[in-house]
Amino acid sequence: MKVLIADDTNTDRLLLKLHLAKLGCQVIEAKNGQEAVSQYSAHLNEIDLILIDVQMPKLNGFEAVKAIREVQQQNKQEWFPVIFLSASANEKDVEDGIMAGGDDYLIKPISQKVLAAKMHAMKRISDMRSRLVESNKMLESLASTDYLTGIANRRFFEVSLERVFDALTNEGDTCFACGILDLDKFKDINDSFGHDIGDKVLIDVASLVQEHIAENDLFGRLGGEEFGLVLVSESREGLIQRFETIQKRIEDYQFVYTGQLIEVTASIGVVAVSDECKTRNQLLKRADKLLYQAKTSGRNQVCYDI
Ligand SMILES: [Mg+2]
């Protein structure tokens, strides 16, 4: 466990550190309330527990914990335990401590035994918290990832599309466009080689395209054999080049499964933002029309409106 200890009395802090080290904890120190807040902010994701003295200069323990709980909320961090340490056994102080965002209150001098027992209990809470954070992360990733290819799913792509376009529009002279890529005659592949092979083609196409995806781009599977792209370039020509490269890469790639070579090509419809076409729905609709145009004029090509 990583523990933040805050105490203005050097000997108290040292003793506490020693005890905690014996219990196998890693310790971060603060000499007053102000320092406790900044140490917490600097180690946001790491701290499992805070042990904090009540009587301290600058910010006292209660004020510091109030500030820490605010930082925690702003950063959407899960709850972690805070234990107040104080020489005063005043009932009002105990109440104030809990109200300020503390979970427990220990009276100084702190017995090693009591501390060890408390730490044991806190370890359970901290483990629970880690599991919660882990499962939240997993849920988030499941909700945004395509199960087959591991890239973004339709929901994530669509939600991100507007955000990405807004961000890019504010960047000024960057060129960017939204594309819908669809594999040509994919039904034939499924029918002739089976769905297992069809799935392999989808996985390989996703990873081929992924090689050409940069940090500011967006790439996701919209469903079936259809993929969504947002690509960025410094010039219109550069942008066209990027889409052409992806289309060509799929055309040239040797898709071989169980000794059979499968011909795979893709058609892409590409649209840039204009006055008439700027919302997510308008962009996807227009890209879809251009994709249809690419299909009807022979497939294995890109049609643009940029
Ligand atoms: Mg003190």
UniProtKB/TrEMBL annotation:
All residue ranges annotated as the Response regulatory domain in the record: 2-123
Sequence ranges assigned to domain GGDEF in this UniProt record: 174-306
GO molecular function: diguanylate cyclase activity
Protein EC: 2.7.7.65
Keywords, ordered alphabetically: Phosphoprotein
Pfam families: GGDEF (PF00990), Response_reg (PF00072)
Catalysed reactions listed for this entry: 2 GTP = 3',3'-c-di-GMP + 2 diphosphate
SMART domains linked to this entry: GGDEF (SM00267), REC (SM00448)
Superkingdom: Bacteria
Biological-process GO terms, alphabetical: phosphorelay signal transduction system
Residues modified to 4-aspartylphosphate: D53
Enzyme class: transferase
SUPFAM superfamilies documented for this protein: CheY-like, Nucleotide cyclase
Co-factor(s): Mg(2+)
InterPro entries: CheY-like_superfamily (IPR011006), Diguanylate_Cyclase (IPR050469), GGDEF_dom (IPR000160), Nucleotide_cyclase (IPR029787), Rev_trsase/Diguanyl_cyclase (IPR043128), Sig_transdc_resp-reg_receiver (IPR001789)
NCBIfam families per the UniProt record, alphabetical: GGDEF
Protein name per its UniProtKB record: diguanylate cyclase
